Amino acid sequence: MRIGIVCPYTWDVPGGVQSHVRDLTEALLASGHEVSVIAPADDDAPLPPYVVSAGRAVPVPYNGSVARLSFGFLSAARVRRWIREGRFDVLHVHEPASPSLGVLACWAADGPIVATFHASFERSRALSAAGPILQSALEKITARIAVSEKARKTLVEHLGGDAVLIPNGVTTERYTMATPLPGWPGDDGALGFLGRMDEQRKGLPVLLRAFETLGRERPGLRLLLAGPGDAEEIRAKVSPELRSRVVNLGLVSEADKVRALHSVDVFVAPNTGGESFGIVLAEAMAAGAPILASDIPAFNRVLLGGRAGALFRVGDPAALAAGAAELLDDAPRRKQLSDEAKAAVRVYDWSTVARDVVRVYETVAGDTGVVEITQSRP
Amino acid sequence: MTEILLNVALLVAVLILLGVYVSWRATRIDRLHVRLETARAVLDAALVRRAAVALELAASRQLDPATSLLLAAAAHEARIADADNREFAESDLSRALRAVVDQPDFRRTLADREDGAALLDDLDAAVRKVSYARSFYNNAVTATRTARRKLLPRVLPLSGRAPLPEFFEIDDAPPET
């Protein structure tokens, strides 16, 4: 299949939408499809062979922050030419409601258009005001995908209509190999936690309370924390005699995150609720870290009811401590959990997610011919 | 005299602008109807495809006869249902498929048999495409209905004699994967 993908944000600046487009494109290419991506990019930016530049993006205030967007006659002309020359079976537009290449592509094209909505917000004045202007462009979209329940809700509330849910994938092979951080996990055991530290739902307080007992029972046990949050505030919550064994890396790079996952004996996910999917859990599974997670429904499902990771009663520090102690003393069981997790996470791999996206393409593409330039005014 | 001419010119200009605007709105509604018809055809094709795969599975001789009979009956009902009963029959097929595929160890057992894995892949794809196609069709219905509820299309026959489209509501929850 020939697929044209429109990325509205500057290719060379990191961001959620950009990495989604990159991972999806690479998964599609790997399964034998022809893909061309158009994205804003600086003229001298190094681009992968499948990306076509739509010119420089301009930083402008939009929806409460400064976004780098691509608009104007020049961009519109480049998008038109790209569509005309691409002869795509399907056009896949990302974030079509942002004032950038996405909406330009919708205006210019006639044929099967798939759109993926990423953003989620409680209320967007920009989107509400833009509704009527966007309407005639959005009316041309044949199939709508939302990447999360939140994004879907935003879409329903602001623009009306529904979307099918296809979540982000995890590129599991990026997590499988990494060198542990120097000195980790050590001989006396190490527990790990990844995520926002100041967000109650991520459950760090439960883990810290469990560490009060675990740390006293096991004199060498260490706790590795990584994620955004106030480091001093966290340390203050730990008893002074245990403080030296709680190591806080703070906000880490993608590469260090993977290394951290390889640096612990047990990865703890003490979330108390709210996770619809748990991308962090999937990443830990891909890294093959033995997992101990709270038994909230989402984690129970991802961990196959305890087969791919041990579960403890949500919000219960004593249960967490007992579960962690059991795993720390049982290396064969940890190995078994790690192997099961690596197998189970394949469902969340980009190759699987991309297969669902291809099913959407096949549903709408049919035999209607290629995407063409619209003849009438939009 | 010049004043009358000026007024006439102004009137003509207003009429031309109005005409352009009305034709633009008509183009939009027309495009929505094309999208709606395409989406409906896609949905029908997806439903037919799903029934065909269910029949193929029933006839594959990889299942026990009771399961085969159950699937074949549900798929057949879905294929012959008239417009009034279509939604019920398709929902019944979804439920039959779930009852069959969600049996303990069904997937593992079938995957080990000849052609079993391929059949399962076909079935998963067909089932998924039904729910996708239905979502896209219902979206097209929403958009068309919204557009036609506006004042202009109600006073002018912009949509010709096309009836107001109806949503397609079925239970299309897929079996567990």
Outline the structure in words.
- Chain A is an alpha/beta fold.
- Chain A has two domains: about 190 residues, Glycogen Phosphorylase B (Rossmann fold, 3-Layer(aba) Sandwich), CATH 3.40.50.2000; about 180 residues, Glycogen Phosphorylase B (Rossmann fold, 3-Layer(aba) Sandwich).
- Chain A is about 40% helix and about 20% strand.
- A seven-stranded parallel β-sheet of chain A has the order 3-2-1-6-8-9-10, sandwiched between helices.
- In chain A, helix 1 packs across helix 15, helix 2 crosses helix 3 and helix 3 packs parallel to helix 4.
- The relative contact order of chain A is 0.13.
- By secondary structure, chain B is an all-alpha fold.
- Chain B has a domain of about 100 residues.
- In chain B, about 75% of the residues lie in helices and about 0% in strands.
- Chain B contains six helices and no strands.
- At the A-B interface, helix 15 of A face helix 1 and helix 5 of B.
Extended strand count of chain B: 0
- The number of helices of chain A is 15
**Percent of residues in helices of chain A:** 40-55%
**What level of helicity do the residues of chain B show?**
over 70%
Uncertain parts of chain A: none
Poorly predicted sequence stretches spanning 5 or more consecutive residues of chain B: none
The ordered string of helix (H) and strand (E) elements of chain B is: HHHHHH
Question: TL;DR?
Answer:
By secondary structure, chain A is an alpha/beta fold.
Please write out the topology.
The complex is a heterodimer of chains A (378) and B (177).
Chain A: E1 2-6, H1 16-30, E2 34-39, E3 51-53, E4 58-62, E5 65-69, H2 73-86, E6 90-94, H3 101-108, E7 109-110, E8 113-117, H4 125-138, E9 143-146, H5 149-159, E10 164-165, H6 173-176, E11 190-194, H7 204-217, E12 222-226, H8 231-236, H9 240-243, E13 246-248, H10 254-261, E14 266-269, H11 279-287, E15 291-294, H12 297-302, E16 310-312, H13 317-328, H14 331-344, H15 350-365, E17 372-373
Parallel strand pairs in A: 1-2, 1-6, 2-3, 6-8, 8-9, 9-10, 11-12, 11-14, 12-13, 14-15, 15-16
Antiparallel strand pairs in A: 4-5, 7-17
Helix pairs in contact in A: 1-15, 2-3, 3-4, 7-13
Chain B: H1 2-58, H2 65-80, H3 86-101, H4 106-112, H5 116-149, H6 151-155
